[in-house]
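Last lecture ended with a question: if I hand you only a sequence, what can you say about the shape of the protein? Today we answer it with a concrete record. The protein is 4-hydroxythreonine-4-phosphate dehydrogenase. Below, first the input exactly as provided, then the predicted structure, then a couple of comments.
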Amino acid sequence: MDVPVLAVTTGEPAGVGPDLALRLTEAGIGSRYVLIGDKAMLAARARQLGLPLPLHDYAPGAPAPTQGLEICHVPLAAPAVPGRLDPANAGYVLATLDRAIDGCLAGEFAAMVTAPVHKGVINDGGVAFSGHTEYLAERTRTPKVVMMLAGGGMRVALATTHLPLRDVPDAITTDSLGQVIRILHADLRVKFGIAAPRVLVAGLNPHAGESGHLGREEIEIIEPLLARLRGEGLDLIGPLPADTLFNPDKLRHCDAVLAMYHDQGLPVLKHASFGAGINITLGLPIIRTSVDHGTALDLAGSGRAHPGSLFEAVQLATQLAVNAAS
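The predicted structure:
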């Protein structure tokens, strides 16, 4: 079988993304990595970190080098200084994403892995940007995507993502939640190779609504939807109280958890896997994984940033690419 070729975007140039990407030679994963970013910036960061790596120009279809890393050059708009954000490079960050997306859609890359970006500085640069997940959906013309994080022996998908808490209940509708569950089920089967996924579904309210005394979303929306989808053959358990859902006995017998909102499920997963978690975007026509941490500007260029999350993201992207090809 051919070795998967992965596009690795190097993220915010003032952050730790370039540092982590340059350490992929240590990962020992059976993939071919193509780093997407400014070659001169990456070479300078490698020197700063004391990494004597040969950096080769990437050429589609050419054989992989035997040493070092391949760079698909995307030029910076302004010089990058570790730890110092510059809105002038907002367009550069998006250009690295566009190159990876286009390569995946064309079949040039088997998957893309993203290093962290800084949403605030991209917006300061004049581009409305709410995150990788939303940007990937727009660029691939995907009407609905699902954010899922993996780590600590868990997979946790989100029914809603980056919303103010007061807006979450209105976003939990039969149509939206049904789409999320179908996407989650389909990608667990196709991309993760799980023949009959079992999903634990959290309730929205404390105690999953306490029979309507603490909220009626479970009674009016979640329970009827789960019953209908079970009738179609999906293995769905819930809605369950979130405060007791994440116990080892329940998790041992499921393939994923569906949380209703961002901070309902992710604190548990990040407690169990911080520094080695992975973000996966489900529902896309391409494979995308990412680190589960931010740009860590204070660590950029210091050599103290731990590459574990990026290594795990590359490992999972490789597995998903192999599954998709089989």
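Comments.
1. The mean pLDDT is 94.
2. The chain has two domains: 1-142+284-326, 144-283.
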